[in-house]
Design goal:
The complex is a heterodimer of chains A (115) and B (896). With 115 residues, chain A is of the alpha+beta class. Chain A has a single domain, classed as Orthogonal Bundle (Arc Repressor Mutant, subunit A), CATH 1.10.10.10. Helices cover 63% and strands 14% of the residues of chain A. Chain A has four helices and three strands, in the order H-E-H-H-E-E-H. In chain A, a hairpin with a 5-residue loop joins strand 2 and strand 3. The longest helix of chain A has 28 residues. In chain B, 39% of the residues are buried. Chain B has 896 residues and is α+β, with helices and mostly antiparallel strands. Chain B starts with a helix and ends with a helix. Classes of the chains: A alpha+beta (115), B alpha+beta (896). Chains A and B meet through helix 2, helix 3 and strand 3 of A and helix 2, helix 3 and helix 4 of B.
């Protein structure tokens, strides 16, 4: 079963990937694979993360100090790298969410008025 | 995790990243299997979805921010590999760089030591030199009299402390040949104000410098080490200076050399000790003997301008208090109008012989010369790298198609260049140490030895690193840009001879060589000019024959002989010298030629006033009858001094041709009368009895000036110092032991200093010699580098056109037409380069004229340079041209 990833969806995704990752990690420590599954799940398959582009984003966020990481054992016994939200990351998430709301409100306003 | 710690733990993190991604892949694969795919299909899907595991890893690594350093280290390792692969090319490049960077560093470290470095004392930026200005002159004068110094010391309030000093040579020997050491007279506060500490014992204090002091001595650190082995027992022992003993009370700190750049400090004694050493001739109370220099330390918060303003206010009362009483009223008024001035003193003063003044222009010229040589060397390396990048086109094309970014490749090529230039710089530094020490030795003459601490301080190091990086970028940028700008596919397909990239390479290389030719031309012209200046000086008619003359400077102060007995003593010495075997003739005089000293005064001729604007200043000298014969200065008219001229006979004088022409024109000067100024015995009119040829007085470079000679027998007030000239039949220095013994037999307390006239002449042109040798060397080096560059480019061009030449030969072209083809190429480059070089030279002449007022129409040097350049270029082109002629058409046509 192939799941096509359309172009405009992934474009949209690039700009908001950081925010989505932060939101998901906010719910609790989680490793990379689970994050990509979760994004797919929660968005009801709307967003399909190019598996590869997840990791550069994760490392970038870790670099900036918004995510913390530690190696833990999973339930299968394998060791995996679990990410969690730092205090800085939490603040960044709140800022981005507020920004997003403002943008979507403005766009909605324009769309309604343009009718 | 900080950035640095991330850098250090790179290895571990790579492993972690690997593990993290592998985990993801495994999970996804497991899920795929659970969804019903076969294990192989599941894995394949996963990897496909991942989109290139390695590049994802790369992206993740990039996100971490240590990417730059990782790739840098990679580049450096690669650069070393590439450089090792072509050892000959690398060796040539390294050698040229080492010479170029080394020469630049050597000259710069000299400039640093002579002009830029601050004195090794406490807070040197607070120091300032106190000068004064006469109302009739615009040049500040640095030397003052002792009365003026004492006034400043007692009444100034513009500085937190002031001191005075005077450099002097002291003789350690007692009679016989002198053993001079460098010393200074210093005021009591000298060390205090400078902030110098003792390395042993104590230093001068104010109480050491009072009138009628017994005197103490402070040793310089180097002297303490070399003469006393650094032993503590030196403190408390005595040192004999000019026949007088002084107790040594301390040693100055290591590295302190005084305040005069280029001088060294062996011993310091207080100013009051001058009375002991000079006796009756002490200058301590003389109001017109200018021998002391002054410096002060600014008060905190006070600027140089403020201190200068304050000193100007103090000028009038201070100077008026010490006006020389025996001066004419007009001159006394001028004296009272002297005003003090301040010069910054952080980098020290110009030294007794004006090292800084003398050498600042030559050093700047040399800096320019070595800068050009370095540019030429860089141009060569650029050509080499350009050719090599042409050869690497396939490799670069492959890399580009594999996904390397052009910026990344450019960075890699630049890294290679910088590694090369860094290696060249390290070699260059070694060469520079040797080179600058050699230069200093070259410049040190017998009389003026130069002492410079040529250590590599921060400034010189920064300079070396700076030009190394600059060079690396300079010769790397062109190959980097050109080499990576290629159409990947066509580059991989085409052969070397047909690639358009190759053609553009050769045109770039041609431009580079043309630039080299231009720069070399400039340097060769400079070399020609300097060599000619030096050659002229060496062959100039000095008015005397400088070969085979031994000079003896004698001082009988230690013998304590009263004035009336001195002239007979000298007569005895002269007679004995004249009788020595091997001596052709001997004479005595007051001022030896080319000694750097000068005695001059205004003269007047009765009945023959000078036209206004002509300077009546005349150079003077006392000589014995045999002087002109010994010096081989031709007598043009009248007679020389002889036994007729005694202390009681008519006062007579011999003048030189310039003076005679100036006052008398075509008429004879014999019989006219000359008065030498308004003071002393020169006031009486003297009869001109002879005219001699013009002779150089202070230096070989000067223009001839009017000269007047008086007979020694008519001098009133014979001094304690005199000089003998001995013309020898054999080598002058071989006569030194005999002369020493002869002088000792007359009076063994006389101190003697030996030199030859030839030595003095050579010393006086030391700088011109230096410039000629160095500019010649660098001009030759530039020519060699350009020839190599030209050869390389021409060889490359011929290789490029082998195919074409093969066709031409197959079609029946003569060898001569092939030769013409290749030569025409070279000629265009040569012509462009020479034209550019001439243009720049012409512009530089204009600039020099505007800035320094130097006018030099050295057409001879320029045309010779052009001819030399053309010859060198043709030789360099000949070999590739011959190769072109020998091309076998069958081979060439098959050549890909």
């Amino acid at each position: 079963m192939t799941r096509p990833v359309t172009d405009d969806r992934s474009e949209f995704l690039k700009g908001t990937l950081d925010m989505l990752i932060l939101k998901i990690v906010a719910l609790g420590p989680i490793h990379g694979y689970a994050i990509s599954q979760r994004i797919q799940q929660i968005s009801r398959d709307f967003f399909q993360v190019q598996q590869g582009s997840l990791y550069p984003a994760l490392h970038r966020l870790e670099n900036r100090g918004w995510l913390g990481a530690e190696w833990r054992a999973t339930d299968t016994g394998r060791e995996a790298k679990f990410y969690s939200l730092t205090k800085k990351g939490r603040k960044q998430l709140e800022a981005e969410m507020a920004n997003w709301e403002r943008i979507s409100d403005a766009v909605a306003l324009i769309l309604r008025t343009a009718e | 995790m900080t950035w640095l710690s991330r850098l250090l733990r790179k290895g571990k993190q790579d492993a972690q990243l690997d593990s993290e991604l592998r985990f993801h892949v495994e999970q996804q694969t497991a899920d795929n299997i659970a969804a019903g795919m076969s294990p192989e299909e599941a894995r394949r899907r996963t990897l496909a979805q991942f989109g290139g595991l390695e590049s994802r890893k790369e992206e993740a690594r990039e996100a971490r921010g240590t990417q730059f350093f990782d790739s840098l280290i990679q580049d450096i390792r690669f650069a070393f590999r590439i450089l090792r692969k072509t050892p000959v090319v690398t060796a040539i490049a390294l050698l040229s760089l080492a010479l170029g960077i080394g020469a630049n560093t050597a000259i710069f470290s000299l400039i640093d030591a002579v002009m830029l470095r601050m004195l090794p004392v406490q807070n040197p930026e607070q120091l300032a030199q106190i000068t004064f200005l006469s109302p009739t002159s615009s040049r500040p004068r640095a030397s003052v009299t002792n009365p003026i110094w004492e006034q400043v010391r007692d009444h100034q309030d513009a500085f937190s402390g002031v001191f005075a000093w005077s450099p002097e040579m002291f003789d350690l020997a007692e009679g016989g040949e002198v053993n001079n050491i460098n010393g200074i007279y210093a005021s009591g506060d000298y060390f205090d104000v400078l902030g110098v500490h003792p390395a042993a014992g104590r230093l001068l204090t104010a109480s050491d410098d009072v009138r009628n002091c017994p005197g103490v001595a402070i040793l310089g650190y180097g002297f303490w080490q070399s003469h006393y082995g650094g032993a503590q027992s030196a403190i408390g022992s005595s040192i004999r200076l000019n026949g007088h003993y002084f107790p040594i009370v301390g040693v100055a700190q290591r590295g302190f050399f005084g305040t005069d750049v280029g001088e060294n400090l062996d011993v310091v004694i207080p100013i009051c000790a001058e009375a002991t050493l000079a006796g009756k001739d002490s200058a301590l109370d003389i109001r017109d003997d200018w021998w002391l220099m002054m410096m002060g330390r600014l008060k905190p918060g006070v600027t140089v301008e403020q201190a200068e303003a304050r000193m100007k206010v103090l000028s009038q009362p201070l100077f008026s208090a010490v006006v020389p009483q025996d001066w004419p009223a007009k001159d006394q008024d001028r004296f009272r109008k002297f005003t003090f001035g301040i010069l910054p003193g952080a980098t020290g003063t110009a030294g007794r012989y004006g090292l800084r003044i003398q050498y600042s222009a030559p050093l700047k010229i040399l800096m320019f010369v070595v800068g050009l040589v370095l540019l030429i060397a860089c141009a060569n390396i650029a050509s080499l790298l350009l050719a090599r990048s042409a050869a690497r086109q396939k490799e670069i094309a492959v890399r580009l198609s594999l996904g390397a970014s052009r910026a990344r490749l450019i960075r890699q090529v630049l890294t290679e260049s910088i590694v090369l230039s860094a290696a060249g710089a390290i070699l260059g530094v070694l060469f520079a140490r040797w080179g600058s020490a050699l230069l200093v030795r070259f410049v040190s003459t017998q009389k003026n030895q130069v002492f410079l601490d040529l250590k590599m301080d921060g400034r010189v190091l920064a300079f070396t690193i700076g030009i190394a990086v600059l060079c690396g970028l300079l010769f790397g940028i062109l190959p980097a840009l050109r080499g990576t700008r290629i159409d990947a596919i066509s580059a991989m397909k085409e052969g070397q001879s047909q690639s358009s990239g190759g053609r553009s390479h050769s045109s770039a290389a041609r431009w580079i060589v043309a630039a080299q030719v231009a720069l070399s031309l400039i340097l060769v012209v400079e070399a020609g000019i300097f060599i000619r200046i030096f050659a002229n000086l060496m062959t100039v008619d000095a008015g005397f024959d400088r070969n085979n003359v031994l000079m003896v400077e004698a001082n009988i102060h230690n013998a304590g002989i009263a004035e009336p007995a001195r002239a007979p003593l000298y007569g005895q010495m002269l007679a004995k010298l004249q009788a020595l075997p091997g001596v052709v003739s001997a004479s005595q005089c007051w001022m030896t030629p080319l000694s750097g000293g000068q005695w001059d005064n205004n003269v007047t001729i009765a009945g023959h006033p000078l036209p206004s604007g002509v300077d009546p200043d005349t150079l003077l000298n006392w000589v014995t009858p045999g002087y002109f014969e010994t010096m081989r200065t031709p007598l043009l008219e009248g007679r020389m001094f002889d036994a007729r001229d005694t202390a009681t006979s008519t006062p007579v004088v011999i003048v030189n041709q310039l003076l005679a022409r100036r006052y008398f024109g075509a008429q004879s000067a014999i019989g006219e009368h000359l008065t030498g100024g308004s003071q002393g015995m020169l006031r009486q009119p003297m009869e001109i009895i002879g005219v001699v040829q013009n002779a150089k007085y202070t230096s070989l470079q000067e223009v001839f000036q009017p000269e007047a000679y008086f007979p020694l027998s008519q001098i009133k007030g014979v001094g304690e110092g005199t000089a003998f000239e001995i013309r020898t039949a054999i080598r002058p220095s071989s006569l030194i032991p005999a002369v020493r013994d002869t002088m000792a037999s007359v009076n063994n307390l006389a101190s003697l200093q030996f030199t030859t006239l030839k030595q003095k002449a050579d010393d006086s042109v030391a700088m011109e010699h230096l410039m000629a040798v160095l500019s010649g060397f660098f001009g030759g080096l530039a020519l060699l580098l350009t020839a190599i560059g030209l050869y390389g480019v021409m060889a490359y061009v011929v290789t490029q056109r082998t195919h074409e030449i093969g066709i031409r030969i197959a079609l029946g072209a003569q060898h001569s037409s092939i030769l013409r083809l290749v030569l025409r190429d070279a000629l265009i480059v040569l012509a462009a380069g020479i034209a550019a070089g001439l243009g720049v030279t012409w512009i530089m002449r204009l600039v020099m004229q505007a800035l320094y007022g130097i006018k030099s129409q050295d057409v001879w040097a320029i045309s010779l340079a052009v001819v030399v350049m053309a010859c060198v270029a043709l030789v360099a082109t000949y070999i590739p041209a011959r190769r072109a002629m020998k091309v076998d058409p069958m081979v060439a046509l098959r050549y890909e």
